Protein 1
Amino acid sequence: MGKGGSLSEGVIKKILLSYTYVAIWIFLSFTVIVYNKYILDKKMYNWPFPVSLTMIHMSFCAALAFLLVRVFKLVDPITMSRDVYLSSVVPIGALYSLSLWLSNSAYIYLSVSFIQMLKALMPVAVYSIGVSLKKETFKTDTMVNMLSISIGVAIAAYGEARFDTWGVILQLGAVVFEATRLVLIQILLTSKGITLNPITSLYYVAPCCLAFLLVPWIYVEYPTLRDTSSFHFDYVIFGTNSFCAFALNLAVFLLVGKTSALTMNVAGVVKDWLLIAFSWSVIKDTVTPINLVGYGLAFLGVAYYNHSKLQALKAKEAQKKVPQADEEANNRLLEAEGDGREEK
């Protein structure tokens, strides 16, 4: 009885820890999205400089990652040749900088709720780019699933009260660049046997992002910032905002490492619905019934896609276990035969 009680306590503790990791990730992701919207929106903090904000984030993350890797040595650096860095990390850094720049820019033109609805297209973009780069196998049923997600997002866009064409282009561009980055991580780094946790990822990628962002910043935002004499850098606002962005990277690693990628996908759906509710009730963004119907359809498509991926993963793991089980059975049979000979 006591043994059963201790087991149930262990299970309860594990469940509580999983929910804690999920809650931390949702809170930080929620905070970063709303905080970025607050800073960039012209009706709120009114600092519409997405490239500058992204550069502040990358500078903060790069500096903190350098301290953790090189000064405090809490994380070991990865052995990486110059060729690997130039052929793998640099393209990924370029795509990451473009993704962050465009997604932050979209907050100036679109509501938080509508941006979350457009982000539902991420599986569509990842799958389509994966197929085009021959990393994914084309399947008719999967493509039909992708079309259902796209139709759902199109319906949500049709019902958007604050539809802005330029904002939609920016957000869709961010989705495409982010999806390409995810596929390239799988192709370039995984093929070379390199795995990056959030700290080492920021250590290598953040300086690269800064270099790519410097060019548009010099020509697009620096002249305006230089001529805006009334602006004074608020260390509290931008410091806490950057720290939240860094903490979010750690939370992603914690959540996936301690639970699973599927848990993160499910938590992401919960986060999206919470953001839509928050955007409607607190920020007072208009969320129409057509918005919700369209996003609901897209949500069902994403849920089915995640379910299909999980089933495929389980089937793959089951196939791996069959040879292992056969080998163990053969070993037990040989041991039994050996014991039988000894008894004779």
Note: The chain has a mean pLDDT of 85.
Protein 2
Amino acid sequence: MAPWWITFIALLWEFEWCVCREVTLPAGPLYRVAGFSLSLPCTVSGYEGSRTQEFEWYLYREDAGGRQIAVASTRDAGFPYAPFQGRVQAGEVRIERDSGDKARLVIQRLRPDDQGRYECYTPSTDSRFLGNYSSSVEIKACG
């Protein structure tokens, strides 16, 4: 039988390799009133690499047949698709960083056609595939 400290070190080593990337958003669906602002926080944890992670946001509308619409990105100014391009350039739709691994999608004035499933995606900085790289939440725009 191995001494307790060898077992402890082995468990720590095993735990280190089990740390996985996790992207989290608030639980949904979230109901918001059209004409008012939306602030949608996204957090990534358990990652390797830079303390400053990148964030990309996509929208999946019911009327778009499951196709993704690029909304905003922290790493690519040319990222937004046409429905969001002007709003991103005007600063009405933007990503604000809370820290290197926490950011929020901000829409100053939510529109009825902004309704849908929003996905927060974090491009990999990991040496191998670890965990999930995105999370999504349903946003319902009322009234």
Note: The chain is about 15% helix and 40% strand.
Protein 3
Amino acid sequence: MLQAQDPRSPLPKSCPTLRASGVPRADGVTGTGVAVPGGRRCPHPGRALRSLSHSCTMAIGEELRSGRFWRGVLAELAATLIFVGVVLGASAAPGPLAPALAGGLAAGGLACSLGGPQANPALTLALLCARKLSALRGATGVLAQCAGATLASAAARAALQDDSGLVTRVSAVGTAGTALAWETFATFQLALAAFATAEHAAPQAGLALGSAVAAGALAAGPFSGGSMNPARSLGPAIVTGVWDDHWVYWLGPVLGAVLAGLSYEFILAPGASREKLGACLACRDVALVETPSLSPSSVAHGPPAPPTEQREQRTP
């Protein structure tokens, strides 16, 4: 039995604080509490949690000072600016074929050239829900994507005489519910391709992503404009002031991307398992229970990366 100690005494070295993502405690329970070896509870949980909060703050500060972090943010901004700009420029042509092909080619080129930025808030939120991206990286990524899309939309509106084709709208042949369903389905197949090709070589990933973007835009285009990207719809709405049914282009893509990410990571992936799903639902570190799979890409590129690198791996 543990003896009561003065709360002002230093935190014992045998009471390790757990990581914010969650680490198994000595008593076999996982969470954000603390425990001592042998399954006994730490007599200073308050001090331990304050120490944990301080450690998390220091980690965030170090990440904000990292050049790699800001290069990733700039890559998201540049990639979204290029993608949205290409799609909006092609939207000046009549019919849905030109924007679909332009978006597919742009997505494939960005996947091969910039190392696989998401350039899509829906994909970023799906990575966040699958616990493959930190909250800080997810928040800054979404902000950078929205900023890039707004800049591209402002430039497109200044360059084009007719800006009516910039804004994604629910078509006259359907309703907002129909557009929502098609946006969800189109983004689901896009995000599924993105998660499945995350570990593959760049040429194959670019081809798969480009094909998924083009296919989704052609399928959903007659009903919703085939956005599949909240930033692509947000930028034109900001510069034109047209917000008709704008909620469709956030709810549909985010719902489709999150469903695809969770389905692949916890059902379809070679390393999927009930333990991995339980870790995600308990807000613990998925990489601690993730089973590396010997996919063709992993055999070609050597052994699996350490867990810290796997968590930060970005999906194109």
Note: The first strand starts at residue 23 and ends at 24.
